[in-house]
Amino acid sequence: MKVKVHGAGSIGNHLSHASRSLGWAVDLCDIDPAALARTKAQIFPMRYGKWDEGIRLLESRDAPKGGYDLIVIGTPPDSHMALARAAVAEKPRAILIEKPLCGPDLQGAQNLVDEAAAAGVAVFVGYDHVVGRACGLVGDALRAGVAGAIVTIDVEFREHWGGILLAHPWLAGPSDSYLAYSKRGGGASGEHSHAANLWQHFAHQCGGGRIAELQATLDIVRDGKVDYDRLCLMNFRTETGLIGRCVQDVVTQPPRKWARLQGEGGYIEWWCGREPGTDVVVTGLAGKPANDQKVSKTRPDDFIEELKHIAAALEGDPAASPLALARGLDTMLVIAAAHRSSGTGRRVRIDYSRGYVPAAIIVE
Q: In this structure, are 239 and 278 located in the same domain?
């Protein structure tokens, strides 16, 4: 595979390293020469031991157009759509866009869907948790009927964004980036939208279908300099009537990244990093001791598994992947609907037949 990565920040480094770990050729591009220099001198060698001379560093204006198998968009969310649509025009085999896919205004989302379909380009969105080994164990437990029919799902991604800033030491604080601006794809609703995506993933796996209705409350911080939601609480109902809860915040420390699928005969829990370097899947049945399955991993492993999944998906049906564009856009519809619900104080419905546009969100 020949890969072009847009963005020499944290995600761009992770996905460049993951690509090289799989033996792929990498061009890493950024509009800022200082970011490229920081990658070579600091970020990459500090994370992975030494700089990889197999990575070619290019200013974005000098990057080739065309000839790539995979184009990665690892820039801030408010730049994703323009870069992704330009990438479609290059006609790679696939495009991977980091989450969140866009801001809650959904601008350009339907255009990307239409243009990618017309060009025959597979597009994936980087909600990597759903293709991790721990999520695979949850899927195995669901298929085995371990907990019986699932009655409700809870997912929480509660994490103070100090951890995010530690991975971006060149930022003085959230206001130096998109993080402190919900409209740009930041805040708890955007940055921790892994939780909403994971809820949707588990709902699909247990036959619950897509989220059809939701009611949300967002705690907004707005002081003339920043404008973001620090807490996003959402209650969901799916097309089949499955109900549940999702919580995302940027204030909790130590972090808690957890999901529980409660069934008629037991439960399944997913824990991200419950112990250092370890994800855990817990299954519990009435009257029996809980069973823990531990998955050891490093942070770079998340991205290696993600790229392995994409390579395999390209040999089959990319649209069936849980990372497929439609799944990522379903998550963005939910995040957009959460902002609408909180702003109006009303429950909202999602009408998927209208496409990935604000008009698909209907206030009750």
A: yes
